Task: structure prediction
Amino acid sequence: LRRNPGEIEFHQAVREVLESIGPVLGKHPEYAESKIIERICEPERQIIFRVPWEDDQGEVQINRGFRVEFNSALGPYKGGLRFHPSVYLGIIKFLGFEQIFKNSLTGLPIGGGKGGSDFDPKGRSQREIMRFCQSFMTELYRHIGEYTDVPAGDIGVGGREVGYLFGQYKRITNRYESGVITGKGLSFGGAQVRTEATGYGCAFFVEEMLKARGTSFDGKRVVVSGSGNVAIYTIEKVRQLGGLVIACSDSSGYVVDEKGIDLDLLKQVKEVERQRLSAYAAKRAGEGAVFVPGRSVWEVDCEVAMPSATQNEITGKDAERLVRGGCLAVGEGANMPTMPEAIRVFQDAGVAFGPGKAANAGGVATSALEMQQNASRDSWTFEFSERRLREIMRDIHDRCLSTADEYGMAGNYVAGANIDGFKRVADAMLALGLI
Ligand code: NDP
Result:
């Protein structure tokens, strides 16, 4: 705490991991002897930089850029870039720290990192976004590379932004190094299923949790928060698996659509027109959809909750209400969306709780598959890639359960994910010497 004052989200993320790995440290004194915990909590490198750019009125704007290269014991640093006004070092460090264990859980050779900026893309023109991305990459390019650090998207960074970032990297370095960034468009080295991967993966993970309890998505009422990349493709896959998604949200409120969210319309409004969710509700008013401004979507009763917007969106009170409303399972599509007291409420009530490290790992896993395809100059079909994703999610689910079992915490996916993710990284760090 003393070393990292004011980094509240980072403290929260570290505490959550440390609380679950006590039993591992008891079994493996070598971790404590070589100070693995102290080492793992300190990023290998933190880069903070100025991002100057010019807006459409010709006015100079200054933002702050970050890249935290947290841990490269398992492979090159890997993790997304977030563009959101709330971004500061504590947010990037929490995301980078979580990313270490998530990436380890996938079983693929990727280390952990994260980056971003306090730039607010909302209301900015396409040209402003491009100029910002170009300026951001003009500094970032010297720190990244296929074998060093491979960024991707996150909040506020989708296919369009990744395109501008990659374009500037290529221009500065004169290298068509496809593996330097993932989430690329299909026409310039992107991989099938990467756009859908986090949402699809989260739906697959929850499907496994439900199956482990002898049930399925079939006919279940599902609420998904957010209406961005993760939310949209969670809704798509949940629907294909038989669930009925009745509500989703954005930062201004939520929409309830009892007949089920109209996915084509949602994609049109969010991905093509780049409008707010209230515009979706207005277009669906004839079908009974209602927009509720300024409130949390977690007041809507459901059997499955899939938070897919941002950190700390489900409070303890929300969790109590969800449990009373018959919630059976929670799958975190977002990173750390459930507050610690809310996790306890769910676990005490016997709700199947899939933490983000496990449930949303499908995005980064598919990014690693994109890197594989870039390295071999290959491109796989949609069906093959989706099959790989489904196998990876099933494997993560099963390992979480078996690890939790092995350490006497049957059914506790949080403990299973933290322990399994931690052990692999810790063992690699031991093997690599004092790094
Ligand atoms: P997007 O930018 O595509 O969408 C974010 C959505 O969340 C928007 O609907 C946004 O609403 C809402 N949102 C963002 N911040 C807030 C806030 N402070 N309060 C309320 N709503 C908010 O991002 P993604 O879908 O990519 O990311 C969503 C979450 O999933 C994040 O936690 C991210 O870290 C996590 N994640 C993403 C992965 C990916 O592959 N993209 C991989 C793994 C995790 P509005 O438009 O009003 O801001």
Remarks:
- The chain has two domains: 8-176, 197-350.
- The pocket of NDP is lined by residues 153-156, 158, 198, 226-231, 250-252, 308-310, 333-335, 360, 363 (CB under 6 Å).
